[in-house]
Design brief:
- This protein is an alpha/beta fold and 203 residues long.
- The chain has one domain: Spore Coat Polysaccharide Biosynthesis Protein SpsA, Chain A.
- It has 7 helices and 9 strands.
- The strands form 2 sheets. Strands 5-4-1-6-8-7-9 form a 7-stranded mixed sheet, with helices on both faces. Strands 2-3 form a two-stranded antiparallel ribbon.
- Helix 2 links the parallel strand 4 and strand 5.
- Helix 3 packs antiparallel against helix 5.
Length: 203
């Protein structure tokens, strides 16, 4: 791919069950005076052509925050699958018009513009590769830029019953981008972690 053809949409994944947080709709949980997902939207929106949110509940509330809202695929009985984040990625790929998709989870409110710029720079230089963030704590597989040319391969992978994120990346050319700021990937999975974040962010 010619780097001049590089274009970017973004998706925030908010379609999980959030069982560790009492099965609430995590993206809409408050952190300070903002919904958790809004903390990720702020650095992402200026960097993408289209902002997509993957959700499986409370569609009208998410529609007010995004250009498009998509839900996970449904099974033969028309039931939502809740089968993992790659299903949300595939749903976003289906509506994206860009060459690449920048993926974020909804529960890392300390994600920074600097981290996103590192990912975008690396993906622009190697547009055929899946570009994944790595922090001092290890791989951050849901902070990633994926070429849309792998959409069909992802659909085939999921159709076979696969769901492991890293295993799918390893089927394709991919690269890791080291991000020194490990705090940017702090994810919220409990009320205790919410309290920690509120203290850290002086909320």
């Amino acid at each position: 791919m010619n780097t001049a053809d590089f274009s970017l949409d973004g998706v925030i994944l908010a379609g999980g069950r959030a069982t560790r947080l009492g099965s609430v709709d995590k993206g809409l949980e408050l952190l300070g005076n903002r919904a958790l997902i809004e903390w990720s939207i702020a650095p992402l929106r200026p960097r993408v052509q289209q902002l997509i949110i993957n959700c499986n509940r409370n569609h009208p509330r998410y529609e007010a925050l995004a250009d498009q809202v998509v839900e996970d695929l449904r099974d033969e009985d028309n039931q939502l699958r809740f089968a993992g984040p790659l299903h949300g990625v595939l749903s976003a790929m289906a509506v994206s018009q860009a060459s690449h998709l920048l993926v974020l989870p909804c529960d890392t409110p300390r994600i920074t513009p600097g981290v996103l710029d590192l990912l975008i720079s690396a993906a622009t230089q190697a547009p055929e590769k899946i570009t994944v963030a790595r922090s001092p704590d290890g791989l951050q597989p849901l902070h990633v830029i994926i070429p849309l040319c792998y959409r069909q391969q992802l659909a085939d992978w999921l159709r076979l019953g696969n769901a492991k994120v890293r295993a799918w990346y390893q089927q394709h050319p991919w690269q890791q981008v080291f991000c020194q700021d490990g705090d940017a990937f702090f994810n919220l999975n409990s009320d205790n972690e919410r309290q920690q974040l509120q203290l850290l962010l002086n909320l």
